[in-house]
Amino acid sequence: MSAKFDGDKRQILVNKVEKNKDILLEMCARLVQVPSESPQSDTREIVNEIKSILENIGGVEVTCHTKEEPIVNLVARLKGTSPGKRLIFNGHLDTYPVGDASLWSNDPFSGHTDNGRLYGRGSSDMKGGIASYLLTFMIMAELKDSWSGELVMTLAGDEETMGVKGTKYLLETVPHASGDAMISGDVGTAKVLRFGEKGLMWIELQATGTPSHGAHVHKGENAIDRLVEGIDRLNKELGLIKVNPPKEVTEAIEKSSEVSESYSGQGETEVLQKVTVNFGVIEGGISPNLIPAKASAQGDIRLPVGVKLEEVEQKIKEIVDSIEGLSYRIFRRYEANWSDFNHEIFSLTAANVKHITGEEPVLTMRVGASDSRHYRISKNIPSVNCGLNAYNLGGPDEYIEIDELVDLAEIHLLTAFDYLQGG
C-alpha cells in the first residue's frame, strides 16, 4: 500500500519538522536532563516535564496513572475533526543506569550536542523517540481539522523491568490506551522495522548436596557439580528443540537477514529462529575446602515464534528431574509474539521510511523485548517498532545522530497523518 498524501502535502509536513528542528532537539535534551534510571524507575519528575510541554499544545488531554510509587505513567490524547481510528504511540520513560559516571566524557545527563550528535543517558533508549512523539503531537494539533480519529501517546515508567506497572497496567485500566494500531519508537533503526519479539522464560535452578570437607570428596555430594550439570544440559538440549514457525515469519527473517545483521550483529538471523539460554547469576559454596550443600543459578531463556512455553518447560522438567538434588522454578514468562505485517501500519511506516531516507526498510523479528509485546499479547493490536539507532546503548557516552532524530520525527508524523487522514 502506498502512502496517501500527494507530494505537496507531504513536503509541507516535512517542512514543518525541519522548521521545528530546534524545538525537537530542545525537547530531547530536556528529557535527557531529567534522570529516570531503572531501578528505581522514579518517573515523577520526567512526567512533570512532559506535562509542561503538552500543556502548551491545544486540545491535548493528559492523565497520569500509578500502580506503584514512584513509577508514574502518562497518557496523552488528541482528537481529530471527527470520529475514526485510534493510533497509539507507545514508549517508556525509564532508562538503563548510568553506571560509573567517571567513564563518561561529560555529565551523563547533559543532553549536550556536539558534531551532529546529542549525548546523554536515555537519548537513544528512548527519549529521542519520545521527543519525536511530542513534535508529532504539536504538528497534528495544528492541523487537526485535516484528520479524523485519535492520536494517543502512552508513556510507561517501568519498561526496563518488564512493564507490569507501566504499559500492561495502562492497557488494563485506561480504555483509550488501546487502539487500532501502535507504533513504538523504542531503540532500533527505522531501516529495520520489527513486527514481533521472541518469548521469554526466566528460571532459577536450585541444587542441594551433602556437605563435607573438600579433602573428603568420597563423603559428600557437591551441590555445585549438580548445578553445573543442569546448566550444561539446559544450554545444550534446549537449543535442539524443534521450531515450527509460520512460513511467512521464516521468510521475513531470512529475507531481511543481510540488512538487519548489519545493524544488530552477525548471527542475529540464527538466534531469532532457535531457543537460546543464558545463565547470568550463579551462587554457591562458602569456602574452597568445603563441599557445598547448596547452589543456585538464574537464567534467561528466549523462545522464537514456533515454540510454546509449555514445550520448553516440559524439556526443563525432564532434564531437572533426571539430576538428583536439582529443582527449578520459573519466575517470569511470556510467549513469543508477532503482528500480521500485512496490516497497513507496516506498509505505511515502510513507505515513509523510504520517502524520508531513500532506502527500503526490511521487516523482521526483534531479539530483545519491548512493551510492544503487551499490545500484541494483551490486545492483539498490530504493532511496529520504528525507532533510533543505538550508539553506546547501556554504556558511557550514549548518543544519537541528530539527523536520524529529525528523520524519525518526519517518519512518525507522516505515518500518523497517513493512518488517520481517512478516518
TrEMBL record:
<dbReference type="GO" id="GO:0046872">
    <property type="term" value="F:metal ion binding"/>
</dbReference>
<dbReference type="Pfam" id="PF01546">
    <property type="entry name" value="Peptidase_M20"/>
</dbReference>
<dbReference type="InterPro" id="IPR050072">
    <property type="entry name" value="Peptidase_M20A"/>
</dbReference>
<protein>
    <submittedName>
        <fullName>Putative succinyl-diaminopimelate desuccinylase</fullName>
        <ecNumber>3.5.1.18</ecNumber>
    </submittedName>
</protein>
<keyword id="KW-0479">Metal-binding</keyword>
<keyword id="KW-0378">Hydrolase</keyword>
<dbReference type="InterPro" id="IPR036264">
    <property type="entry name" value="Bact_exopeptidase_dim_dom"/>
</dbReference>
<dbReference type="InterPro" id="IPR011650">
    <property type="entry name" value="Peptidase_M20_dimer"/>
</dbReference>
<keyword id="KW-0862">Zinc</keyword>
<dbReference type="Pfam" id="PF07687">
    <property type="entry name" value="M20_dimer"/>
</dbReference>
<dbReference type="GO" id="GO:0009014">
    <property type="term" value="F:succinyl-diaminopimelate desuccinylase activity"/>
</dbReference>
<dbReference type="InterPro" id="IPR002933">
    <property type="entry name" value="Peptidase_M20"/>
</dbReference>
<feature type="domain" description="Peptidase M20 dimerisation">
    <location>
        <begin position="196"/>
        <end position="322"/>
    </location>
</feature>
<dbReference type="InterPro" id="IPR001261">
    <property type="entry name" value="ArgE/DapE_CS"/>
</dbReference>
